[in-house]
Write a structure and sequence with these properties.
The structure is a single chain. The protein is of the alpha/beta class. It starts with 7 loop residues before the first strand and ends in an 11-residue tail after the last helix.
Length: 765
């Protein structure tokens, strides 16, 4: 368990525009952290966020740990804060580039409505009040037929200080002055202006969006990504270079690149940014109303809770300098900042002064395991996830697929028809539990842990790092830690090895650990063969020759003999690309143990000479993939590949699966097989030890008999120490309850089927 028993907190407030991005990041940190974190962000608008950061009503002590805004700290606020707290009291950290776009609701109008800045200014200032005004029709002659004569324009605007209002009004004010239409805009500029009385007020971007969606003939403004996500019609605006384009067609980062080159952004991030503006800059693909979103951060944070400071610094680095953090910008219709600003931010973050004993947080990425180190308290691990994270990702994928189908159907139809907190405090104690291991049933485990957190009255922080069975076993055994485990439990689809079992029991006693089987799964072989629709059939010997590279072509005689109809769909001499896991994987152990045993027993020993285990020495002309995610993505994206995954993972992606000949001579896929059949036979034949404290190293469910038995069946185990007397009492209670729920309860076992595993037989329960 973590050495930290209190909840580390971090609280920010500000702009609504990139709020979804910030909520995503903060939730990602909470789910990937071993120590319990409580990170919040209030989307109150840039102006309110700036007030709470400056804290003028609190002796210039901030109400938050950080602020965020699409407008820089104003000159008045900057001067007041630096006068009270010193010349270098704060920094601006730019982290994404966005656009304020103008959206409309015009029934029957299908083409983008084009406007120039002067005409737009007259619309928002109510000098133009009708949609069929001569100035609008001149730019959009085809539109007139779709609009009722004399149709009133309903102008919607934000209230209570909004960076969107600041962006739009600053653009209109500058444009009107520079392009000879000063009389078109006399309302001034800022986060609030005095709007004409016959306009419609909307508090918050949500109300702006809902008004635009529900009220015909309206026009308003939103951050571009918000409007795009709702499918609102967008004004195509004439930029400085005379190009008419929407924010979606523009390159949002272009203005930021120009701002750096022209020195608009101060060289010293502690200086005032009040005059920084990216409105109406040149460039054929530049959007006229471009805004940078900033973090506002105090430089002197020495009085801050040390761990909170460490989290804040890590969060700033992740969002504003890391490849993964910047990639998230695109997911929310923002643009990543230019490389020059990334370097600028790295130097800025070095200026932050925290407590001397503040921990330094580092990162373990989803694609690169850091054994032992990744189990440390101050690691933000991409190997940890919450069930909500994967569920949301799956939902997003499904929604994107539905959206594509809707667009396709629409295209066919078209064709047919022609508050006042005074800083943050540490929370009360929280019960923790941390595990690591196999990636195969990781979704099941994340689901269970999140279920426990939500159903518990006492606060729980339960995590699981999906690092692979071998790494999970190493961290459970803890050989590098005097055989004291790095985790509260391990999990693997392979038993604890003989070497690890012997070493641990020698150090801690003969009954030092138990294996608790909880689900039965299968390792299946998947492929990507364009044009092949029937399941490809293989026997164990042919499969061994493919993975050992003795068979290298898809039209090899041995493959064609088993699949005569396939030959017509495969290019002659098409190379087989073999993909394999690295860094110790239970999937590799399952496949290679099956191939090794099968080759020995079925008279094709020469077909497999690579041995068996969680790692083997693969031929040089094979493709390495770290983690089941990379294996899956390689199989999905690369034609003529073959690889292996836990069956449920491959099924969920719709991958083509090899139909394998089992011991009884039945050719079947893992989906057609009964995965629990091998486990039932293993109990009856005494393969599983009667005493769970004994070694399970020789337990194997490969190639067992039965017409519906899958040849590469594996049991997933919990590895648990028997002597847990030194464990936190409540953590022990949670651990015991979790083990009972997953491995013995009807509800817990039912969850196995939800993730394409089989429940364990009654005898194992």
């Amino acid at each position: 368990a973590s050495s930290q028993t209190t909840v580390t907190q971090l609280h920010g407030s500000g702009t609504t525009n990139p709020s979804k991005l910030l909520w995503d990041v903060l939730e990602t940190f909470e789910s990937r952290s071993k120590i319990p974190l409580h990170l919040t962000y209030r989307a109150v608008g840039s102006s309110t966020g700036q007030k709470e950061f400056v804290g003028e009503n609190n002796g210039f002590n901030s109400h938050t740990d950080f602020g965020s805004g699409d407008i820089p700290v104003s000159k008045a606020n900057y001067d007041a804060l630096t006068a009270a707290k010193g010349a270098d009291a704060l920094v601006h950290i730019p982290y994404v580039v966005g656009g304020i776009a103008v959206f409309y609701n015009l029934p029957g109008v299908t083409d983008a409505v084009k406007l120039d800045g002067c005409t737009l200014a007259k619309i928002f200032s109510r000098q133009i009040t009708k949609w069929d005004d001569e100035a609008i029709v001149k730019l959009n002659p085809a539109m007139k037929a779709s609009i009722p004569a004399g149709q009133e324009i309903s102008v919607v605007h934000r209230v209570l200080g909004s960076s969107s209002t600041s962006g739009l009004t600053n653009y209109l004010n500058r444009h009107a002055q520079e392009f000879g239409c000063a009389a078109a805009w006399t309302l001034g500029a800022g986060s609030t202006v005095e709007w004409p009385a016959d306009t419609v007020a909307a508090q918050g971007s949500g109300n702006m969006a809902s008004t635009l969606q529900s009220t015909p003939y309206t026009i308003g403004y939103l951050d571009a990504g918000h409007g795009h996500s709702l499918g609102l019609g967008e004004i195509a605006l004439l930029n400085r270079d005379g190009v008419s384009l929407t924010s979606k067609q523009a390159t949002l980062g272009a203005a930021a690149t120009q701002a750096i080159k022209s020195g608009i952004i101060p060289a010293d991030s502690t200086q005032s940014f009040a005059d920084v503006a990216l409105y109406d800059l040149g460039g054929a693909d530049t959007w006229p109303i471009t805004m940078v979103s900033y973090f506002y951060v105090r430089t002197d944070l020495t009085a801050m809770d040390p761990t909170s400071f460490g989290v804040l610094k890590a969060m700033l680095e992740y969002v504003s300098t890391s490849e993964e953090g910047q990639k998230k910008a695109g997911e929310y219709s923002f643009s990543a900042i230019p490389a020059e600003l990334v370097t600028y931010n790295q130097e800025t973050i070095k200026k932050l002064r925290g407590p001397a004993n503040a921990p330094v947080f580092t990162f373990e990425t989803a694609s690169k395991t850091k054994a032992y180190e990744g189990q440390g308290d101050y690691i933000i691990s991409g190997k940890r996830k919450s069930f909500a994270e994967i569920d949301h990702a799956q939902m997003a994928t499904e929604m994107a697929a539905v959206a594509d189908r809707v667009k396709a159907l629409e295209a066919k139809v078209d064709d047919h028809h022609g508050d006042d907190s005074k800083g943050t405090t540490q929370g009360s104690g929280i019960t923790q539990l941390h595990g690591s291991g196999t990636t195969n049933p990781s979704k099941l485990l994340w689901d269970v842990l999140e279920t426990f957190e939500s159903r518990s009255k006492i606060p729980l922080h339960l995590t699981y790092r999906a690092v692979g069975s071998s790494t999970g076993q190493k961290e459970f055994v803890g050989e590098n830690n005097g055989f004291n485990s790095h985790t509260d439990f391990g999990s693997g689809d392979i038993p604890v090895s003989k070497a690890n079992y012997d070493a641990l029991t020698a150090a801690k006693g003969a009954d030092a650990l138990v294996h608790i089987p909880y689900v039965v799964g299968g390792i299946a072989v998947f492929y990507n063969l364009p044009g092949v629709t029937d399941a490809v059939k293989l026997d164990g010997c042919t499969l061994a020759k493919i993975f050992s590279r003795q068979i290298t072509k898809w039209d090899d005689e041995a493959i064609v003999k088993l699949n005569p109809a396939m030959k017509a769909s495969i290019p002659a001499g098409q190379e087989i690309s073999v993909v394999h896991r690295v860094l110790g994987s239970s999937s590799t152990s399952g496949l290679t143990n099956y191939l090794n045993r099968h080759a020995q027993e079925f008279g094709c020993a020469a077909a497999w000479t690579l041995g068996a285990g969680s790692t083997v020495e693969w031929p040089a002309d094979t493709v390495a993939a770290q983690g089941s995610g990379n294996m899956a993505s390689t199989l999905q994206s690369t034609p003529y590949t073959i690889g292996y995954l836990d069956a449920g993972h491959g099924h969920s992606l719709g991958l083509g699966e090899i139909a394998l000949l089992n011991r009884d001579g039945v050719s079947l896929t893992s989906k057609q097989a009964t995965l629990g059949a091998a486990a039932t036979q293993a109990i009856k034949s005494g393969i599983i030890p009667a005493d769970s404290t004994q070694s399970f190293a020789d337990v194997a469910l490969y190639d067992l008999g039965g017409a519906d038995t899958w040849p590469i069946t594996m049991v997933s185990y919990f590895y648990v120490r028997t002597d847990l007397t030194a464990m936190d009492p409540t953590s022990f209670g949670v651990l015991k309850a979790m083990l009972e729920y997953v491995s013995t309860s009807e509800e817990g076992q039912k969850k196995a089927g939800e993730y394409s595993f089989s429940a364990i037989p009654a005898e194992l329960v």
